[in-house]
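pasting for ref
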Amino acid sequence: MSSPSSINCQHCGFSQLCLPFTLNDSELDKLDQIIQRKRPSHKGDHLFEAGKPLQALYAVRTGSFKTYTLSEQGEEQITGFHLPGDVIGFDAIGDQQHPSYAQALETAMVCEIPFNNLDHLLDQVPKLRQQLMRLMSQDIHGDQQMMLLLNRKTAEEKLAAFLTNLAQRFGSRGFSRKEFRLTMTRGEIGNYLGLTVETISRLLGRFHKDELIHVDGKLITIANFEELSRVAGMAQIGR
């Protein structure tokens, strides 16, 4: 197994989804010099917590994370699920402090990108600034799509859209889009979509019965992607 420090941007399989995209070898070397690759996060570990100052952005290398906020009553509201290639922490740039929490859903590894160093590097590498803005724009678009989904879709459409989007995200990362493991609980999916855990379980059972998907514990197999997409109304969820 490779040590954390032996992985670099140039040889990362997710570079086209992340900050290194469009950079040449010299520019990649400059980015690599500021990135910190530390030991794995374990399930339940936090990358950052709400109210803490912005120290770094985090690019997911392996595993997955959820981001969430807490209400004044301490109720959790999940705002996103993050896979390898995703960058977490953009929402802290404006106020220089995190408005949300990022927690590992399983053993995971990240590239930690110190923000002050990144900010300095943006002046030296214009293409890096462009890529950062592109990723932030995608983040905003994902938020907008999520709001549309929650406001307009039925429970069936919400879950179908969630599953088709997750499948597409896995596929874009070189994984199987047909078969994947849910690292989040049904309760967490329900929290994200504004549905009860009972509704999630019932709909998964219905989709299974209708042969849209096969469910084996946390393992999901997409049996009929076209029909599942039709149920979703071709909706897309950003994260």
